[in-house]
Each structure stands twice: as structure tokens, then as C-alpha cells.
Amino acid sequence: MSTRTPVHAPRLLAAGLALASIAGSAPAQRGRPAELVPPGLRLVHGDILIPANHPVPEGASCSQTGTYLPVPWPDGVVPFTFAAGVTGSQKDAMRAAMDEWNYSGADLTFVPIEGPDAASLSSVTIQNSSGNNSSIGLLPPGLNVINVFNWDYEFIMAHELCHTLGFWHEQSRPDRDTFVTIQCGNVSQTDCSGGPCDSNFEKESGWLALNTGYDFDSVMHYDQCAFSTSSSCPQSGVTIQTTPAYAFWQSLMGQRDHLSLLDVLDVIDAYGSTPTGPRYVDPASTIPAGTLLLPYDSIALAEGVGSPSTGIWVKPGTYGEGPITLDAPNVWRAYPGGNSVVVR
Questions:
Q1: Which residues share a beta bridge with 334?
Q2: Strands 48-51 and 41-44, bridge-based pairing
Q3: pTM over 0.70
Q4: Which domains does the chain have, with CATH numbers?
Q5: What is the mean pLDDT of the chain?
Q6: Which residues contact residue 172 at a Cβ distance below 8 angstroms, ignoring those fewer than 6 apart?
């Protein structure tokens, strides 16, 4: 009888790898004070910065549709620089959030730049702030910025980075009404710079990628109480209500502890995939090719293929192979949406 090795958090820890918990529930998004908005930009959708001169309506019904089409970064190259005052530990935290996208297999490169080049290029300035927000897609030089307050939440920063890559919130998809209903009467009229928050829930017609289905598990989805009038939400005042067919997701949407499977596929759809991407492993795979949709069924096989720097994403389960040594110099990740721990 063959030895069957279960792979889960305790098994990985026993193998001698360091185990780090991903930050769990993010701070509730129920309205917040005005945040740092650089000149030439304005804040929409709660945490997205667009050019101030773009004619996006404000103060209208939360069922309105916007028309801003983000611009992707050429060749997936995103130059960035840290503003003065960002500490070493904060820089490390942001680089870890970038790594979540780097290891996804999307053809992206976050390139640090310094000195006068930072001002002359369309580089992203990452700075400490009173809130979390980001410019969306590639903007002219001087307008690309990520403001960070929650440096201790890796996937809040991954969320803002996804805006930088050119993505709206999931509930802003033009097909969202099949999946959720926005309860406009429960949306705060005072919590967005002292005014209404209705425009935070507008739909958007301009998307870099819409080939995957609606994703309640997306790191880009609002939670059910976003910008609610009620301090007791979700007991009352829910702003995002699933339609009956998707009631299972009511309390689960809005997570900030992992990239979902469709998050990864959306970004790959927009930017392409790396020639030698990460290796994916799932014990239930029947067509093992090592890709996200056709993962290997063997950890040993994944360890023997590709470059350690591309990483191995492991889905918890039971693998039909003997004792496994997980001390090779590979970058280990939990499968997208697989669980709430990451192996480093």
C-alpha cells in the first residue's frame, strides 16, 4: 500500500518551513474621513483615484454607470518609488504584497526606481497616508500614487496594487445586478468627505478584462456593509445584498486574506502570463500540466520543474506519494483562494 501524505498547514510546518498567517478580516469599510488626494486627482468608489478632469458623475444614484477606461502598464512593467518617510518595514510589507502578484504567473514586473528618474517617468509613488487608495491604471507622470494606511494588511495593499494595474471593484462590473443588489437606501449620505457615498457603488463600462465570471471571492469585492448608514451592520443596513441564487456568499464577500482564482485569471487575461510561470499542485488533478487550470497532482513533480523563483502554489489535500521534503529553495504559496495561510 502506498504512503499517502496529507498536505495542510501542520504538515508544511513539520517540514521545516516557516508558516506565516495572512492577515484575516480587513478593517470594515463603512465610510471614513477625507483622505490624502494629490492635486490633479479625485477620489471615486471609496479608494480609487482618477484624473480630476474626467467627467465622472458624482452624487447621482448608486445605480449609475461610469465610462472611465483604465490604461494598462505597457509590457506589464510598473516602475515605483517610495516617498520620504516610508520605513524599512513598510517597504518590506509592500514588496510582500507585490510578490503576491509577481508569483501569480501574470506577466508583471514591479521595478524600483530612484532619483530624478522617478519624477520624469510615469512611476507609482507609494506613500504613508491617513487612508488606503490608489490611482487606477497608467496615468501621466506625477499622477500615479498609492496611499497606504494599513501597512499591516498585506491584502489591502494587494487590493490597491490591483487598482494600480487598472482594475475596478468587482461589484462595479456591468453585469453585477444578476449577482448582487445595491441597497441604495442604506448607503451613507454623510461619510464620504461629508457628503453622499452613492457614487461609490456605480457600475463601470470600462474594464481591462471581463472574460471570467463574477467573483464573490475576489480581493476586489466590497463587503456587505461597505459605506453603510448603520453601525450595527450586518444586523441592519446591509448595502450589498446577494441575489437569492448566491445567498451563500452574503457574509463571505469582501475578504482581504488571499487572491482568488479569478483574481489571478483576470490579471493574466489583461497582461498575459510569464513564459515560465509558477507551478500549481492539486491532488485531485486529472490532467497534470502544472498550470493554474491544469495543475500537477504531485508536489515532487512540481519541485523538479521550473525555477524556484517562480514559486509553487499548493492546494491542501492528500497526495499519493511517499515522504515529501519541502526544504528546497522554492517560494511556496497557498493555492489561490485555497486557505488562509501562506508558506514562505
A1: 314
A2: antiparallel
A3: yes
A4: 5-22+276-343 (no CATH), 25-257 (3.40.390.10)
A5: 83
A6: 45, 66, 201, 202, 203, 204
